[in-house]
Write a structure and sequence with these properties.
Layout: H1 4-7, H2 17-26, E1 30-34, E2 39-41, E3 49-55, E4 58-63, E5 69-75, E6 80-81, H3 83-87, E7 96-99, E8 103-109, H4 110-117, H5 121-146, H6 150-165, E9 169-171, H7 176-182, H8 187-199, E10 203-205, E11 209-212, H9 215-223
Antiparallel strand pairs: 1-8, 2-7, 3-6, 3-8, 4-5, 4-7, 9-11, 10-11
Helix pairs in contact: 6-9
Length: 237
């Protein structure tokens, strides 16, 4: 087995392949493959499995009774799916998790993962960091969705990415369609607002990237519609 992806994964970061092989040989797990659009975890299904993506990508989707859905996050090779749900008191997955391309996942049962966490303090620390990071990202996601205006949502996302990367060049996630779904807005409306910001000289809008030309004006766009003070906090996947 190629341990390259696992060595770079969020759970096993910093663990040499020799030690990693020993740990995995002593802890039950299995490799499972999923086709594109196949559901990995179902909403409200009993949460008893945690996965590490080896190949492909998976997307967490939150459906609503009115037929709409919010795309919560996309997981890529090396990232975990399901850790917070498995250890939450409800023991239920809060979202559907679907393979958005052919995907291979290393699966652990809850008890087996607990055994693994006890084998090396670095693994336990990595797991704790992942849960904390997921919670922080969810808070940011909720703040994004709390803005009413499409321009404000786009401004919030771009300014957030600017702080994260320390760059004025922002990568559009996947595509403009995926980005609009992530912000729970229509693609034509998002495209129109980006073009409007470009006309104002605030950004330069290209197919896969956006260049922020005037950060202060973009911050002013965000300030036009301040989000509510109170937030609804949910458990991350």
């Amino acid at each position: 087995m190629d341990y390259t992806v696992l060595e770079r994964s969020t759970l096993f970061r910093g663990i040499p392949s020799k030690n990693l092989r020993e740990f995995l040989e002593s802890v039950p797990h299995h490799i499972q493959c999923y086709d594109k659009d196949e559901i990995i975890f179902h909403l409200m299904e009993e949460a008893d499995r945690i996965g590490i993506i080896l190949e492909g990508r998976a997307e967490a989707q939150k459906p609503f009774p009115n037929g709409s859905q919010v795309n919560v996050s996309i997981r890529t090779p090396g990232e975990m799916i399901g850790p917070a749900a498995v250890f939450a008191s409800s023991h239920r997955y809060p979202c559907d998790v679907m393979a958005i391309e052919p995907t291979t996942i290393m699966m652990f049962r809850r008890a087996d993962l607990l055994n693994l966490l006890q084998k090396d303090m670095r693994i336990l620390e990595n797991f704790t960091t992942e849960i904390a990071s997921a919670t922080y990202m969810l808070q940011q996601r909720l703040e994004l969705l709390s803005y009413n205006g499409i321009a404000q949502k786009a401004a919030f996302y771009m300014l957030l990415q600017r702080r994260k990367t320390n760059s004025d060049h922002i990568q559009i996630p996947e595509s403009i369609t995926k980005w609009s779904m992530m912000m729970n807005v229509s693609r034509p409306s998002l495209h129109r607002e980006l073009k409007h910001l470009e006309t104002q000289g605030i950004i330069r809008y290209e197919t896969h990237t956006i260049e922020i030309l005037d950060p202060d004006s973009l911050q002013a766009v965000l300030s036009q519609s301040a989000p509510p003070v109170q937030r609804v906090v949910c458990s991350p996947l």
